[in-house]
Amino acid sequence: MILRILLLCFVLLIIELYAFQALRTLIKMKWVLFSYQIISLLLLVFIIYSFMQFDRSVGQTKMTMFTMGLVLLVYVPKMVLTLVLLGEDVFRIGAGSVNYFIEKNDNVTFFASRRKFVSQIGLGLAAVPFLSLIYGVTVGKYNYKVIKQRIFFPDLPDAFDGFTITQISDVHSGSFDNPDKINYAIDLVNEQNSDMILFTGDIVNTDAKEMHPWIETFNRIKKHEYGKYSVLGNHDYGEYITWPTEKDKEDNFQAIKNLYGQIDFKLLLNEHTFIEKGDAKIALIGVENWGHNFKKAGDINKASQHVKKEDFKILMSHDPSHWEHEVQHHDKHFHLTLSGHTHGMQFGIEIPGYFKWSLAQYVYKQWAGLYENVGRYVYVNRGFGFHAYPGRVGIMPEITVIELKKGKDVA
C-alpha cells in the first residue's frame, strides 16, 4: 500500500512538473505562474482531504462524486500536456545525441530549449478533454438519447412481428440532482408507446433510501400492454459499503427488491414468464446479477427450467459478461439478451453507425449496442443514470427501443 501511494505521488509530481513547464514556456509573468502553483497545490490538498474523508459505511455521496469529477477535470488535461511534452523530450534527447555523439557539434547545446509551439499544441489538445469534462458534468449526464434498434429473427412467432420493447438500465437514482431532467426522461420513455418495458437493473447506488425521492417520478412510466419487468443489477445487493450488521444489509436488499414493485415493475428473480399474444407466446427470462468479475447470483438454468429449446426467448441479465461466458453458447438458444452495467464508462467517442470507442471495450467485449453470434444477440444499454463520475462525455444516457422482426436482415 505504501509503495502504491509513493508511486502515485511520483506520477502526480511528474504530471505537475510537465504541466508547469508548458505554462512557463508560454507565460513569463511571475505572479501568474505563482498563482497557478498555489491553485494546483490547493486543489491537490482538497482532493486528498476529500478522499481521506470517504466513509465506507456510507458509500458514494455527492461530495465523492464532485471530487471524482474534479480529479478528472484537473488531471486528464495535465496528462495530455505531459504526453505532448514527454514526446518533445524524447525528440530533444534524440537530436542532442545525434549532435553530440555522431556529428560532434560542440556549438549546439545537447538538450535544446523547449519550443513554444509544442507547448501551444499541448495546451490546445489539453483543452479538448477539459471542455468535454465540463460539458459532461453540466449537460452530458442528462442528454438522453432514444436509440432504436430493429432485430430480425427467422423463428420469431408471426404474432410478434413488429413487437416493440423499451429498455432502460442503470438508473443509479442516488446520483440524480435535477428533477426536471428526470421528468423529461420519463416523458421520453412514455412517448415511445412500446408494447413492453424492461428495466435491467441498478435502481440505486447502494441504499434503498436513494430511490425514495424518485418513486413518484418513476411511477409516471405508463402501463404497457404486455407488462413492465425488471431484474437486479450488481449495485442492488448493497455490497459496496460496510453495513453495521448482516441484518441491516439484508433489510436493505429486501427494501431494494421492493422498490421495483413500488414503481410497478415485476421483478424476475431467476425465473421466467410467458408473454402471450393471441395463440403465440415468447418466454421472458430474468436472472439475478451474474458478472464475470462481480456477484454471481444469476442461475440461468433455474430461470429457464420449464422453457423449451424451441420457445422464442428474451433474457434479461444485467452484466453483458454473462452473455459472453454462459449465454451465447447455451444449449437452450437464448435469442436476445438485454444487458446494461458498463455505462460505456460514461466517457468515449461515438459516431452512430460508424465508430465508437471507450475504455470500456478493453474490459468488456460487449459494452454498448448490439452484438451477435450465430443468430444469438445481446444488446447493451448505455445506462439511464451515472455513477462515480458525475457526467457523461460522448457516451450519452440511453433509452432503447427494440423492434422484433420476423425474417432475416437483408441489409
UniProtKB/TrEMBL annotation:
One of its GO terms (cellular component) is membrane. GO terms for molecular function: metal ion binding; UDP-2,3-diacylglucosamine hydrolase activity. GO terms for biological process: lipid A biosynthetic process. Residues 164-344 form the Calcineurin-like phosphoesterase domain. The keyword Transmembrane applies. The chain crosses the membrane at residues 29-51, 63-86, 117-140. Keywords: Hydrolase, Membrane, Metal-binding, Transmembrane, Transmembrane helix. InterPro entries: Calcineurin-like_PHP (IPR004843), Metallo-depent_PP-like (IPR029052), Metallophosphoesterase_sf (IPR051158). This is Metallophosphoesterase. It comes from Flavobacterium gawalongense.
